[in-house]
């Protein structure tokens, strides 16, 4: 992928000012737990078990080089399993939602240095964001709107 369309977009954000409820904080300030991700060939029975042990509702799915491919919606997967539409030995890749990357929908890079104001913009129409390193080689954490709300509450705003 050496074309310019495969380059990640960088989130624009307003400069820190009086109206910034995050006071210039970045993703790293959220102190998120390390991400838990699945290889694409993991069995769905194991994926559901691991998700419930950790109380995660979405799990990133990675390729053999640890790059994000998509995610599993754990509740939806469990429903399919209970309805007999999925076998416990099926691979998670069969049921994952693939990340959409194209010229019109480029990958948005979210790193520990991403300002929370920019993250809030990103999460306006998404359930969660993957926090990765700048090279997108490793998934470091998963962040949700609730994480942002908890951060503001902890700061007493």
Structural notes for this entry:
The chain is built from four helices and eight strands. The chain is α/β, with parallel strands linked by helices and 157 residues long. The model is unreliable at 1-5 (pLDDT under 50). It has helices at 44-54, 74-82, 116-122, 145-154; strands spanning 9-10, 38-39, 58-62, 68-73, 97-98, 108-109, 128-132, 139-144. Helix content is 24%, strand content 19%. A hairpin with a 6-residue loop joins β7 and β8 (139-144). The protein has a single domain, classed as CBS-domain (Roll).
Short description:
By secondary structure, this protein is an alpha/beta fold.
Outline the fold blueprint.
Blueprint (H helix, E strand, L loop, with lengths): L8 E2 L27 E2 L4 H11 L3 E5 L5 E6 H9 L14 E2 L9 E2 L6 H7 L5 E5 L6 E6 H10 L3
Parallel strand pairs: 1-6, 2-3
Antiparallel strand pairs: 3-4, 4-5, 7-8
User: Would you list the SSEs in sequence order as H and E?
Assistant: EEHEEHEEHEEH
- CATH homology group: CBS-domain
CATH architectural type: Roll
Tally of distinct domains: 1
Annotation, overall tally of beta strands = 8
Just give the CATH class.
Alpha Beta
- Average predicted local confidence, pLDDT: 84
Low-pLDDT runs:
1-5
Number of helices: 4
**Helical amount among residues, as a percent range?**
10-25%
- Give the strand order of the largest sheet, numbering strands 1, 2, ... along the chain: 2-3-4-5
Assign the CATH topology. Answer: CBS-domain
Cα gyration radius (Å) = 17 Å
Please describe the biggest sheet, giving its number of strands, its sense, and whether it closes into a barrel: 4 strands, mixed
Secondary-structure-derived class: alpha/beta
